């Protein structure tokens, strides 16, 4: 690991000043991803600015929504009563990720900014456009079973690994930031970029910009969930995951919010499936048609073709569960 | 810099690159916590920080100034093993013993999380006031600690036997 200096920020403005905009510094949350990446020499900051003592508050808003401090731990999020009662998909997504030890360390802001677990990104002997722009991508013709079927490009097929973000994009979460030009807010669904030709540029954040909090509007309904399909029952990244919230009234889908994880290069809001479902009968054939609509542009590679059908079936199964439709 | 390890305040000065695990093992001679994968995948380095379990291999020691750390060396009191340590012996909760310090620290904190009402991903009713700590719950909640000898059945039995009489 390259030597670095360590400082702890007492407030967001101090954090901003300490990090600067020269690209040599990084914000440090729980360290569960960054410390590992520094050991692997993928990240090599000269300065670390600890932001874990900044806002850890999780507070209700008058409109029924919620504001989550970026330094709140993943465990604090899943333990929060309002989240367990009003946003069960978010609590389940957080609890489906990593291990208890890691959830105790990891912050919400850090979870949003964690980097891919693509094995070629981690392997110094492989070509990777994220690690070295223009180098090429060895995952394309390699062991790509875990890779993306949506949002990929010829430069990168790495998935975004977060479970929490999948629920947050479904819930229309908004990220609040502080940068040298002041405060701004960005819908989470727009924060992560598609890889296109520059997979090394992963978010819309500007140099030095700090995530301060995440805001959630009120839920559509308390009927929401998160289902994660993976190679072992616990402590594994998703092959496919679905975050879903469905309001069914008189047998019809009044409103719905859906997102997919494990299948895309960013937390994937399933806009097409939502559009196909609104106003339709809450039946298995409608759910299947919506799933087909969402996956119409999915592209499988040698080892991950199976994810296309798996994603459709998981989407249908989750919608059936929430709508109380027997399968 | 100060840190409180197993009840004793210790002054330390290390390179910022030093992990909490390396501080414990290489600088303080507390070799109970193990370095298995050194990347947060195996749980052999699990210690408690203010009572909560973390992977000390992914923790930078400088980030934990002033915090109270409990390692496996701190579980016994006045020479008497923690009830969970005795149960691990009685129920064959290990073979080689390498993962055991992490398993023990993890289990102590896991029961504390359960007593505070924290659900897990296998909990049916997320908002329930009381959650039964059955076999599925224990296995899910302990999934961050791998045992390559495969002593999982003994580990679950030891935890069950120790904590089934809790209120």
Topology:
The complex is a heterodimer of chains A (327) and B (167).
Chain A: E1 5-8, H1 12-19, E2 25-28, H2 34-39, E3 47-50, E4 58-60, E5 66-69, H3 74-79, H4 81-86, H5 88-96, H6 100-105, H7 108-112, H8 119-122, H9 164-170, E6 174-179, E7 182-187, H10 188-191, E8 210-216, E9 224-229, E10 240-249, E11 252-261, E12 268-269, H11 271-277, H12 284-294, H13 306-323
Parallel strand pairs in A: 1-3, 2-3
Antiparallel strand pairs in A: 4-5, 5-8, 6-7, 6-8, 9-10, 10-11, 11-12
Helix pairs in contact in A: 5-9, 11-12, 12-13
Chain B: E1 2-5, E2 8-11, H1 20-27, E3 46-49, E4 52-55, E5 68-70, H2 83-90, H3 100-115, H4 135-141, H5 152-163
Parallel strand pairs in B: 1-5
Antiparallel strand pairs in B: 1-2, 3-4, 3-5
Helix pairs in contact in B: 2-5
Rg from Cα of chain B: 16 Å
Structural class of chain A: alpha+beta
Largest sheet of chain A: 5 strands, antiparallel
Radius of gyration of chain A: 19 Å
Q: Quick one: biggest sheet of chain B?
A: 5 strands, mixed
Number of alpha- plus pi-helical segments of chain A = 13
Q: Cα distance, first to last residue of chain B?
A: 40 Å
Biggest interface pair, counts:
A-B, 38 and 36 residues
Portion in beta strands of chain A: 15-25%
CATH H-tier superfamily of the largest domain in chain B: [2Fe-2S]-binding domain
Question: Within the CATH hierarchy, at the fold level, what is the topology of one domain in chain A?
Answer: Enolase-like, domain 1
Total strand count of chain A, please?
12
- What is the CATH architecture term of the largest domain in chain B? Orthogonal Bundle
Multimeric state of these chains?
A: heterodimer
